[in-house]
Each structure stands twice: as structure tokens, then as C-alpha cells.
Amino acid sequence: MTITLEPPAPVLAAVAGGGSFPIRRVFCVGRNYAAHAREMGRDPDREPPFFFTKWAETVVPDGAIVPYPQATTDFQYEAELVVAIGKGGRNIPVESALDHVFGYAAGLDMTRRDLQLQARAQGRPWDTGKNVEASSPLGLIHPAAEIGHISRGFITLDCAGQVKQSADITDLIWPVADVIAILSGLYRLEPGDLIYTGTPAGVGPVVPGDKLIVEIEGLTAVTVTIGQPLE
Ligand code: MN
User: 12-227 domain in CATH 3.40.50.2000?
Assistant: First the structure.
């Protein structure tokens, strides 16, 4: 039997110390910092987390040029702590959730905000606002076996030389273990899955030429540059 098309190459992420991590799926948490929920016009109190997904192929590495995407005039940064899942499971208890973590990285959930907000207002899916080509920059994955688990420490985003987002991982409404427990109640998590855990307040737009740097305490920074729109 012949395969009619060339299968796509796996999407690989670099691991600190060498090797690569094959990315299976990308899950993202909406609104996981109270101040960001407020800036988006929502009440963060006691709302359970919700999730959306992006293709694995939206992940691009440190140093990438992220082309300004088509069909938007409001492309925005969202700095995020990213969890790489190493061990799968369904209905994972919060007490053992961190056992499923392979490692952590700094990342960006780049967003066509105009399309996201239009969809939100109309009660439509967020896909065209969120699941965007090259929209998920990811830094080096640091294995938890080497650095431990990330439960505190600064998270900052610098855009074109100015600090735009500055918070602490302790500000997460739903910490990593809770996110894994809740998400695994919706899907069986698989090795290779990534979870972008949500962004702090201070999101804003980019223009071609902007350099974005996400720094998270204990992790390697991730830097990308916004490129010209693709023809
Ligand atoms: Mn996000």
C-alpha cells in the first residue's frame, strides 16, 4: 500500500542539555491570571479554567521569525509558562499530577486578538484567533528531573525593549497540578502534549520588527522577532 502524500515531519522541541521532545498536541488555558481576566472584561473569581487547542505545527523555536499573520490588524503577545507532558493519563489526581510533567519552558501564545474578540462576542469558537501559523513560540524545555517543578518565580515579557508583562507564577489561579488534573478529566493526556498555562495582564499588539523576549525564573528565555506579512 502506498501513502498518497508525504506524511508531515514530527514537530520537535529542543531539550536543555540535548535531545528533542516530539510535540503531540498543544493545549492552552484561557484566563489563568486574575489581573488578565479583568483586563479582558471577565470576573476571574471561582471560574473553572477553560481550554482551547492549537496545532503542534504552530510551535516555533527560540530565535524564530514569526511572520505577521494574514487577516488581522491586532496581533498580540501573551507570555506563558509551558508544561511538557512526559507521562500520559486520564482523570489524573491533583496529588500525583506533577509526576506526569516532563519539563517546563517559556513560551508565547500569539493571538489574532481582533478575530478572537469577534468570535467571543458572537459565541463562536476561538480557532481563527488562536490557532495561527507560527503562533506558539517555545523555548528550551528544561526537564523537571533536573530543575524541579515551577510553582513560583517571575514571568516577564519585553516587547521592543519595554517590559509589558510582569507577574509571578504564584499568581496563577490554577497552578500546574490543578491544570493537569482538570484537563485530564476532559482528555487522556499523552506524552508529547504541551500545556500553555495562560498569560498575565499586560497583553498588547506587535508590529513587524518587534523583538519579544519571555523570561521565566529558572528557565531559558525565549526570543522571537515579528516578521513581515507573508505574501
Ligand atoms: Mn494564552
Answer: no
136 CA distance to ligand 1 middle (Å): 10
Amino acid letter, residue 173: I
Distance 222 CA to ligand 1 centre (A): 16
Residue 157, beta-bridge partner list: 165, 214
d(CA 140, CA 13): 7
Measure 99 CA to ligand 1 centroid, in angstroms.
Answer: 24
Q: What is residue 46's predicted lDDT score, i.e. its pLDDT? A: 59
Closest by CA to 31, choosing from 200, 190, 213, is 200
CA 32 to ligand 1 center in whole angstroms? 9
DSSP class per residue in 125-166: -SHHHHS-TT-EEE-PBEEHHHH----S-EEEEEETTEEEEE
Cα–Cα distances (Å) from 173 to 43, 87, 119, 185, 230, in that order, read 12, 24, 24, 18, 37
Q: Ligand 1 centre and the CA of 199: distance in Å?
A: 5
Between CA 164 and CA 156 the distance in angstroms is 7
pLDDT 10s digits, 204-222: 999 999 999 999 999 999 9
Which pTM does this prediction carry?
0.96
Residues near ion ligand 1 (CB < 5 Å) are 78, 109, 199
Rounded distance, CA 4 to CA 160, Å? Answer: 45
Among 99, 98, 137, 129, smallest CA distance to 227 is for 137
Grid cell at residue 202: 499586560
Low-confidence residues in the chain, pLDDT < 50: none
